[in-house]
Amino acid sequence: MERYFQEEIECASREQIKKIQDERLVKQVRHVWDNVPYYRAKMEEKGLTPDDIQSSDDLYKLPFLSKADLREAYPYGLVGVPLKECVRIHSTSGTTGKRVVAFYTQHDIDLWEECCARAIVAAGGTDEDVCQVSYGYGLFTGGLGLHGGAHKAGCLTVPTSSGSTERQIMFIMDLQTTILCCTPSYAAYLGEQMKEMGYGPDDIPIKAGIFGAEAWSEEMRRDIEKTLGIKAFDIYGLTELSGPGVAYECSVQAGMHINEDHFIAEIIDPDTGEVLPEGSQGELVFTSVDKEAFPLIRYRTRDICTLTREKCSCGRTHVRMAKPKGRTDDMLIIRGVNVFPSQIEAVLIKQGYAANYQIIVDRVNNTDTLDVQVEMTPEMFTDNLGEVADRQKSLEAGLKAMLGIKAKVSLVAPKTIARSEGKAVRVIDKRRI
Ligand code: DLL
């Protein structure tokens, strides 16, 4: 039986959802106009006033916000309330430029934690569960977001944070953890370690995993589910909007329900900014409708995906987003061809590898090169060079069929590619260095 945390909202009729969005959007735009001079100036530039926004049908008129705006307004330029009303910040792990800092009032934190609780309950979480939160705590939103959600869902919360893999496994086994929250790459690593320690899927007490913060393929999901003997649920979010829980998967596992009472989603053409019809692939754009400290109107996420409003058999009515295919800034253009790391991962997993790989792009004699280093699993590891060469050839053929361009594959011994406790580093693009 499907369980809900806030059934009246999660299963509200489309008319009810639209009504909530319309009312809240009008207020949110007024709030931003009155309190965020940076965005007011953007509206004025377009000749808009809050009176031009009477419902969510008028959303398309409003100007976009991008990461560049957030950097320009850093640190306080987009804060919509007096600082004394803010109770926390979080910040992205961005490696280039200024970090993005997002602000929260207590109201913002409560709504965020409710979103995370919806995700945990959708994954089967109840007050009978032991929920181990192995996302990083601190500036990253994963740890504290799911921690708050686990409390609200009534779980016994185990705040291990990321890292210390041995200790993680000890707690899983000793406390009989039933729900694990971490990045999918760390879940795969935990699975690998537990297997090595002799724990099979039947010995592992975990029943559900709530994995997100990075792109992961369906193939990787099946792999993790098999090793740990669990059902693995996807969860999506970004710091700018709150953190995890902007969208989450239900038991049907066919896309993530976006919490539409808090966020309006649009798909746009990343080049022209034009709003695309339902079902089209494009850049995901979000508008918060009831945030106080850090309201964001038409924020461009750079994530590429599709939306569907088709009825979901779980009973939830909120729009679903597909697994993001990648980010506009993650997409590699190699010899003119668009390549997403997720496509490479799908080929590897299909041929029996785990998601331990690194993509190295370089430019030699003015031509882009694509090298993929892939770890062999312990079962396939061999010193029979002929066998290794055959495996390499088979992967190269699979990649050529998937990408349409040639990639050079190097197979490496198990455990030679560094593991990540948080988001995995998959691509090294030497062309930009
Ligand atoms: O990653 C928030 C989060 C924490 C989500 C824990 C889920 C679980 P940021 O560090 O700001 O926030 O990174 C946000 O990560 O724009 C996507 O590109 C990517 N991302 C997040 N979740 C998923 C997912 C957190 N389920 C950026 N699938 C987003 C694919 C994801 N990509």
What structural class results from the helix and strand content?
A: alpha/beta
Mean pLDDT: 94
The helical percent reads 25-40%
Instruction: State the distance separating the first and last CA atoms.
Output: 53 Å
CATH level 3 topology of the largest domain: Rossmann fold
CATH class of the largest domain: Alpha Beta
Write down the oligomeric state: single chain
Question: What's the structural domain tally?
Answer: 2
Radius of gyration from the alpha-carbon trace, in angstroms:
22 Å
Question: What is the H level of CATH, i.e. the homologous superfamily of the largest domain?
Answer: ANL, N-terminal domain
| Largest sheet data | 9 strands, mixed
- Extended strand count: 21
The unique ligands bound to this protein are: 5'-O-[hydroxy(phenylacetyl)phosphoryl]adenosine
Q: Count the helices. How many? A: 11
The side-by-side strand order for the widest beta sheet comes to 4-3-5-6-7-8-9-14-13
| Low-confidence blocks of residues | none
- So, CATH architecture of the largest domain? 3-Layer(aba) Sandwich
**How large is the share of residues in beta strands?**
15-25%
Any idea what the shape is?
globular
